[in-house]
Design a protein that fits this description.
This is Tellurium resistance protein TerD. One of its GO terms (biological process) is response to tellurium ion. It holds the Pfam family TerD. Keywords: Tellurium resistance. The chain is mainly β. The protein has one domain: sav2460 like domains (Lipoxygenase-1), CATH 2.60.60. It contains 2 helices and 12 strands. A 6-stranded mixed beta sheet has the order 1-10-9-3-7-6, with no helix packed on it. Strands 2-12-11-8-4-5 form a 6-stranded antiparallel beta sheet, covered by helices on one side. Strand 9 and strand 10 form a beta hairpin. The longest helix has 8 residues. The protein starts with a strand and ends with a helix. The mean pLDDT is 88.
């Protein structure tokens, strides 16, 4: 049975290999433009900075150099039920310098399309065992991010050689570039 987390809660991840599933539904845009939400992963060390440009995993860089983090590809519409995008994690391969993996979702071209997370509903992040398709934990974002165009859904971090997940749910009124500036 999956553990449902609230914002700020933390939970141990006892599986060395798992998949992060991200899902959302979009309201019909008043601008007429389709929504394109993108999951991005920032793989960081002790200094809270990405280890290298290749440790930023997203739709144009689908795999980390150690092959521990793999994005399964960009979903351009978010149509359908279930996960819209997935990231596979194998902690047995992770670079020993890694202490944090940050999971961010942004709205592609949000400014020009006049879109924000206030128009997105049923957003969630879940961590599941891909071999059994069993959810380990899930966090549903319930906040109304009416001006934010990027949201940090959660982070996986290492403390005392154990990996944990924290439900973050923090919005930012910028795009992917703002996160790159923050973590670079």
């Amino acid at each position: 049975m999956a553990i449902n987390l609230q914002k700020g809660q933390r939970e141990a991840i006892d599986a060395p290999k798992f998949t992060i599933g991200l899902g959302w539904d979009t309201n019909t845009s008043s601008t007429g433009a389709a929504f394109d939400l993108d999951a991005s992963i920032f793989i960081m060390g002790d200094n809270k900075k990405i280890l290298s440009d290749e440790h930023f995993v997203f739709y144009n860089n689908l795999k980390s150099p150690d092959e521990a983090v793999e994005h399964t590809g960009d979903n351009l519409t978010g149509a359908g039920d279930g996960d819209d995008e997935q990231i596979k994690i194998d902690l047995t391969k992770i670079d020993p310098r890694v202490t944090e993996i940050c999971v961010v979702v942004t709205i592609h071209e949000a400014e020009s399309r006049r879109q924000n997370f206030g128009q997105v509903r049923n957003s969630f992040v879940r961590i599941f065992d891909a071999a059994t398709n069993t959810d380990i934990l899930k966090y549903e974002l319930e906040e109304d991010f009416s001006i934010e165009t990027a949201v940090e859904f959660g982070r996986i971090y290492k403390r005392d050689n154990k990996w944990k997940f924290e439900a973050v749910g923090a919005g930012m009124k910028g795009g992917l570039q703002d996160y790159l500036n923050k973590y670079n």
